[in-house]
Amino acid sequence: MLSVLLPAVVSDFQRHGIGHALMEAGVTQAEALGITHLRTATANNSRPAHRFMARLALSPSAVLRTAPTQVVRAKLAAQRPRSTAAAKSSLSSLLAQRRSQRRRTDAG
Predict the structure, then answer these.
(1) Do 39 and 73 belong to one domain?
(2) Is position 63 within any domain?
(3) Residues 91, 47 share a domain
(4) Lowest model confidence (mean pLDDT) among 30-34, 75-79, 103-107
(5) Do 27 and 38 touch, CB atoms closer than 8 A?
(6) Closest to 40 in 3D by CA, of 88, 10, 30
(7) Range of the domain at 34
(8) Is residue 61 a part of any domain in this protein?
(9) Shortest CA distance to 19 belongs to which of 37, 2, 4?
(10) C-beta separation of 49 from 42 below 8 A
(11) What average pLDDT does range 67-80 have in this prediction?
């Protein structure tokens, strides 16, 4: 599979055949190498690019998602299940607080 990633045309030069020329070059390269499939990626907010690719029979096949590494690391750490020792100690702490509350309400 040949990838033509983020082919873009500066707005001043759009509608002059440059996009077609870029994709033609990709198809020519794929044919020369005996590659039977072509894939491309465009910006997710570029409706004209998506429409252009659809007119060329390229259909969506995946969703790519991006995020800074530090943000993903923080989210992974926040969603990691707590260790059983930590869970047991927090459960013991919770039960102790409830017993204390019960004693106070029973004594009061």
Answers:
(1) no
(2) no
(3) no
(4) 103-107
(5) yes
(6) 30
(7) 2-55
(8) no
(9) 4
(10) yes
(11) 90
Please check the confidence at residue 107 and state whether its pLDDT lies above 70.
yes
4 DSSP β-pair partners: 40
Query: Which helix (H) or strand (E) segment is 93 a member of?
Result: helix 84-107
Burial 51-71 (b: 16+ CB within 10 A, else e): ebbeeeebeeeeeeeeeeeee
pLDDT at 8 over 90: no
**Does residue 108 register a pLDDT over 80?**
no
> Exposed e or buried b for every residue in 5-30, given b needs 16+ CB within 10 A?
eebebeeeeeeeeebeeebeebeeeb
Whether 46 and 12 map to the same domain: the answer is yes
The count of domains in the chain is: 2
Question: Minimum mean pLDDT among 3-17, 51-65, 74-88: which range?
Answer: 74-88
